[in-house]
Every structure is written in structure tokens, then in C-alpha cells.
């Protein structure tokens, strides 16, 4: 079985020299989505259209946003990152792992609940020091 993760990508587009038209933005989106589809499966996508930025990026105040939820093997993400960096119209992007859900017959990446349980099982630094102090006191008491 292969590990398959769910990812969410949000990317922002704008052409630095002149305005990027909506048709051109959608063309870039289709190119990126085709690249993802060749290596995995797109579950949903939403074109948010032209929106204002939270803060100016190189004097730009607006851009086109797209959000895509997709399923791929983790090895593909590095290739996707490189591809997005090569697209001059994409000025920012963010790829995050979506919390996994079990599906019939498919093994998915670790869930957040499992990670939280593992973290709780790990002893804190203070607990480890307290245990060492206790053992040290026992050893010193035996020597006396």
C-alpha cells in the first residue's frame, strides 16, 4: 500500500508587467491543475477571482486566487513546488496537508489525532529530569 495524502493549495496570480486578464489567469490555473491531475487526483477546485491582497506585494494590491484540494503521493509535492516557482504569473502559493480521513482500501497519511496522542505519550523534559533526580537519590541512599 502507498501513502496518499490530501493537500490544499492556494495560489495567487498576477503579471508584473501589465494586468493579467481573467482568461489568462484561468489558463495558468488549467496548466497547474493538469500537472496535478497527471500525478494524482483533484477532488475540488474553486476560482475565487480577483481580490485585494492583505498587504502589497511589490506594489501590487490585487490578484487572482485559486484553491485546489487534491490527493497525491508526498514525493510529488516537491515537483509541484518547483513548477509553481517557474510560473512567473504565480507570485505566492501555499500547500498544506489536509487532515487525513480513512477510506476503504486506501491507507492515508497520519491523522492529527494520532499525532496528538504520540505527543502526549512523550515525556516532557521536566518529567525526565524528575525521574533522573529520583533515581540519583535512590542510588545515593543505597551507598550510605
| CATH-assigned homologous superfamily of the largest domain | Ribosomal protein S6/Translation elongation factor EF1B
Uncertain parts = none
Quickly count the domains: 2
Distance between the termini: 58 Å
Question: Structural class given helices, strands, pairing?
Answer: alpha+beta
The order of strands across the largest sheet is: 2-3-1-4
**Number of strand segments:** 4
Outline, from the CA principal axes?
elongated
What fold name stands as the CATH topology of the largest domain?
A: Alpha-Beta Plaits
Give a summary of the structure in a few sentences.
With 144 residues, this protein is of the alpha+beta class.
Write a structural description.
With 144 residues, this protein is α+β, with helices and mostly antiparallel strands. Helix content is 41%, strand content 34%. The protein contains four helices and four strands, in the order E-H-E-E-H-E-H-H. It has helices at residues 22-39, 75-86, 112-121, 125-143; strands spanning 5-13, 40-57, 60-72, 90-98. Strands 2-3-1-4 form a four-stranded antiparallel beta sheet, with helices on one face. A hairpin with a 2-residue loop joins strand 2 (40-57) and strand 3 (60-72). Helix 1 runs antiparallel to helix 2. The longest helix has 19 residues, at 125-143.
